[in-house]
Amino acid sequence: MIYLASQVPDQPVAATTALETNVNVMIQWTAPFDNYMTIDRYQVLIGTHNSQTFIETKTLCDGSKAYVVSARTCIVPIASLLVAPYNLVELELIRIQVIAHNPRGWGVASPVNTAGVTAMTVPSQMTAPINGPLTDEYLIDVSWSTLAFPNNGGSDLTSFDLEYDNGTAGFIWYSLQGIHPESLNLWYKISTGVIPGRTYLFMVRAKNAFGWGPFSSTTTIKAATKPSQMVAPTTAIDVSGKLRISW
Q1: What is the β-pairing status of strands 130-131 and 140-143?
Q2: CA pair distance 170, 183, nearest whole angstrom
Q3: Distances (CA, A) of 63 to 40, 100, 154, 240, 244
Q4: Is the distance from CB of 153 to CB of 208 less than 8 angstroms?
Q5: How far apart are CA 74 and CA 27, in angstroms?
Q6: What is the pTM for the complete model shown?
Q7: Per-residue pLDDT of the chain (247 residues; tens, 9 = 90+)
Q8: How far apart are CA 206 and CA 203, in angstroms?
Q9: Domain 130-222 in CATH: superfamily?
Q10: Which residue, 211, 171, 176, 215, is CA-closest to 193?
């Protein structure tokens, strides 16, 4: 009869990560060979900024829970990795190590994953809106540019919030679009309540699954337009014989 001595579990292969509901990272791993003693728990370690250290936070992923041992899956809010102790920065790879345990002890940590989900955050500050070509004494035409990757925070944009001060010199601000309902329009026109000659301030911000980014700097738009076309000038010869041009 041959008896096989039990040992600690083998080293797991690298864990994988996937985006879950746009704001969470799903961490999954494969059970290694248990060396003839059942694996009863795991440690799931997440790398800090620049992978200086790997830390287990059981409130995020508790590898001692039976359902985690069975499913070999944890779902972690990405926002929780942007703060201490992890302090990941936008687009930094979320790095994972997994260690398996059986009654003989802890095995060796898995290799660190080299691909997968990156840290995402709110969008960057947008550039200020611009005055559109249709602005005149009774209509304000304003537009702005979208944010492309990576300035979108690494997550698809869901809305732009355009606000203006209604001519109060920045004292009171009103949302014109993008809050309720959300909107991805890149322009807006105000055609009622515009007072000729009045100056209005505008600013815009972007939203993704992680929330609103900061407002842009403000743009000043005056309810005015270029002068109308003038009538043709007239000419005449005065008494001194000089040409006189009038308009």
Answers
A1: antiparallel
A2: 24
A3: 9, 9, 29, 104, 95
A4: yes
A5: 5
A6: 0.80
A7: 454 567 999 999 999 999 999 999 999 999 999 999 999 999 999 999 998 899 999 999 999 999 999 999 999 999 999 999 999 999 999 999 999 999 999 999 999 999 999 999 999 999 999 999 999 999 999 999 999 999 999 999 999 999 999 999 999 999 999 999 999 999 999 999 999 999 999 999 999 999 999 999 999 999 987 777 777 888 888 778 787 887 8
A8: 11
A9: Immunoglobulins (2.60.40.10)
A10: 176
- Residue burial 127-141, b: 16+ Cβ < 10 Å; e: rest: ebbebeeebeeeebb
Structure tokens at 158: 């869901």
CATH dotted code for 16-106 = 2.60.40
Report the amino acid identity of residue 136: D
Half-sphere exposure of 166 (CA within 13 A, CB side): 8
SS3 readout for the chain? CCCCCCCCCCCCCCCEEEEECCCEEEEECCCCCCCCCCCCEEEEEEECHHHCCEECCCCCCCCCCHHHHHHCEEEEEHHHHCCCCCCCCCCCECCEEEEEEECCEECCCCCCCCCCCECCCCCCCCCCCEECCCCCCCCEEEECCCCCCCCCCCCCEEEEEEEECCCCCCCCCEEEECCCCCCCCCEEEECCCCCCCCEEEEEEEEEECCEECCCCCCEEEECCCCCCCCCCCEEEECCCCCEEEEC
Tell me the β-bridge partners of 76. 25
